[in-house]
Amino acid sequence: MGTCGLRPGPAGAFGRGGPLSPATIQRLKAGWQGEYAAWQQRRLDGLEVVSVWAGGIYIQAGLDQDKSCVLVLGGALSDGRNVVLGLESGHRERKESWARRLRSLRDRGLACPKLVVGDGALGLWGALREVYPSATEQRCWNHRMVNVLDRLQQKDQETGKRLLRQRVYADSRQDAEKAKRTCQGWCQTQSYGQAAALLDEDWERRVAFYAFPKAHWGHLRTTNPVESPLAALRLRTEAAQRFQKVENATAVVWKLLWVAEQRFRRLNAPGLLTAVWQGAVFVDGLPAPIGKETAQEGAKTAA
């Protein structure tokens, strides 16, 4: 096992049957790394990526005490397919790690996506503004809800969740603003000033999804479309020190995601995805009335 750089793990991660021999694992590893290298070089011209989700999976690999991170970019295509666009080891919080990944996609022909969804703490955002400056940014609401709830005492968690959900699932930007003020008022009366302040951070980038079709809000408010497939991988990679080399871990994660991609659910209302790709403007999830399209484009340019 030492020659292939993988420590023993569940056989299900490599197929069904009994334990795998070192020679078999060596052959699998070489094959996956070759396939992954070819996948990294594939051309992306003509791919109509409407939205992108950014996430990552931490794994124990190599001799370092710190966990390595495999950065993952998933995308929604204009025909409704949900695909893996990019995957590479790097540092989740570092701008250059994400910039390298984004430049690779751009240089292989990927046009600028309409929307990119990610955690507000990622180094992704600085990189995105350099490589795809015209992409709209959407911060993940799941991450922000966790951040806010972490600042509440246990006895107030349920009330906090209820108020936050009213904001997250509001039917319009106006209703979202109202729900935010209600939640902030409650936070202030309970002496949760830090939690109230968090609701204002990156506000415009948390309500960007209102400018997209309502049928798509469920997968635009959060990074769940990329985080959910990664959750299954975490169950397989959290065993202590399974991977001795980062490149082995990256190839295995890619292979498992590549297989999982074949079962990804198609996104809702693919016709609307095509409309977004072609430049249709939406206000509060509905097609913009004539006269509002120009105003909205002007406001976006000013922002």
Account of the 3D structure:
The structure is a single chain. The protein has 13 helices and 7 strands. By secondary structure, it is an alpha/beta fold. The protein folds into 2 domains: 185 residues, Nucleotidyltransferase, domain 5; 115 residues, no CATH class. The strands form 2 sheets. It has a 5-stranded mixed β-sheet with strand order 3-2-1-4-5, with helices on both faces. A two-stranded antiparallel ribbon has the order 6-7. Helix 5 packs antiparallel against helix 6. The protein is globular, with a radius of gyration of 21 Å. The termini are far apart. The N terminus is likely disordered.
Give the structural class: alpha/beta
**Count of DSSP helices?**
13
β-strand number: 7
CATH topology assignment of the largest domain: Nucleotidyltransferase, domain 5
Spell out the helices and strands N to C: HEEEHEHEHHHHHHHHHEEH
The spatial strand order of the largest sheet comes to 3-2-1-4-5
CATH class of the largest domain: Alpha Beta
Q: In what range is the share of β-strand residues? A: 5-15%
What's the shape? globular
List its traits.
disordered N terminus; 47% helix; two-stranded antiparallel ribbon; 303 residues; Nucleotidyltransferase, domain 5; 2 domains
